[in-house]
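Before the break, one more example. Copy the sequence into your notebook; we will annotate it together after we see the structure.
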Amino acid sequence: MNILVGFNGSNIAVDTLPLVRHRVDVLGAKVFVVTSMRKANNNQYDKMQQAESSLAYAKAFFQANDIPCKTHLLIRGLSAGEDLVKFAKENQIDEILVSIRRRSKVRKMLMGSTAQYVILNAPCPVVAVK
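Here is what the structure looks like once it is written out:
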């Protein structure tokens, strides 16, 4: 079984890691931790470094618990939701875990929701954690 964790380094995403550890213990799954950026250029070097640092944190968490994981920073010009769904299809992912946060209906309508996109378009079950 393959589990994809949509990880952006936020407090909510960090709080999701123990749940992933539990699911891996129960299911004997492999873990893929994925962060997505729409684009990368010289102006966004700091954001890339922050994303890589977040991925390193997640990898260290799993290594400390003797759980192998692969991390991926995706920069393919897609939205985060599109990237996660595409990655899931490309890598035969069996379950996706994404963290969610409360947003007003207006903000969700204007900004969209990564979790909502993943839930509606993923090729596998999605666990939303808040």
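The first strand starts at residue 2 and ends at 6. Helices lie at 11-27, 45-64, 80-90, 105-111, 114-121. Try to locate both features in your own notes.
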